[in-house]
Amino acid sequence: MRWISIGLGAALLALQWQLWIGASGVPELLELRASIAEQRAANRRAEQRNDALAAKVESLKEGPEALEGRARRELGMIREDEVFYQVVEE
Predict the structure, then answer these.
(1) Which residues contact 78 (CB under 8 A, 6 or more apart)?
(2) What is the pLDDT of residue 51?
(3) φ and ψ at residue 76, rounded to 5 degrees
(4) CA 39, CA 47: separation in Å to the nearest integer?
(5) Is 13 inside a domain boundary?
(6) Cβ(26)–Cβ(20) under 8 Å?
(7) What's the average model confidence in pLDDT over 71-83?
(8) CA–CA distance from 3 to each of 41, 44, 51 (Å)?
(9) CA angle at residue 37 from 35 to 20, to 5 degrees?
(10) Domain span holding position 54
(11) Would you say residue 18 has pLDDT above 80?
């Protein structure tokens, strides 16, 4: 009977060791939870960026005014009947 108790105690200690200190125990669980939190934050940032890009695409599809405004602002384009003046500060 005594050997059975010692054997069960040793088995319990081995299982507890594996749970708390082993490679696939609590430390790995904590690392995985942190990794999941980081990935969720990255996913939220990507979703926000995608939403902003989708809104920009929709505004460009809506009408020529948005497209013209963007061409003027980002590319410096002008219409055929306009005159371009460049002011150089000294």
Answers:
(1) 72, 84
(2) 96
(3) 70, 30
(4) 12
(5) no
(6) yes
(7) 83
(8) 53, 57, 66
(9) 55
(10) 24-78
(11) no
Burial of 74 (0-12, 13-18, 19+ CB in 10 A): exposed
The residue type found at 65 is E
83, part of any domain: no
Task: Extract the tokens encoding 55.
Answer: 């809104």
The reply to whether 66 falls in a domain is: yes
CA 23 to chain centre: 28
Q: Are 34 and 40 in contact (CB under 8 A)?
A: no
Q: Is residue 12 in some structural domain?
A: no
User: What are the distances in angstroms from CA 46 to CA 4, 7, 39, 85, 89?
Assistant: 57, 54, 10, 41, 41
**Structure-token match 């902003």, residue found:** 52
pLDDT beyond 90 at 39: yes
Q: Which two tokens stand for residue 23?
A: 């490679």
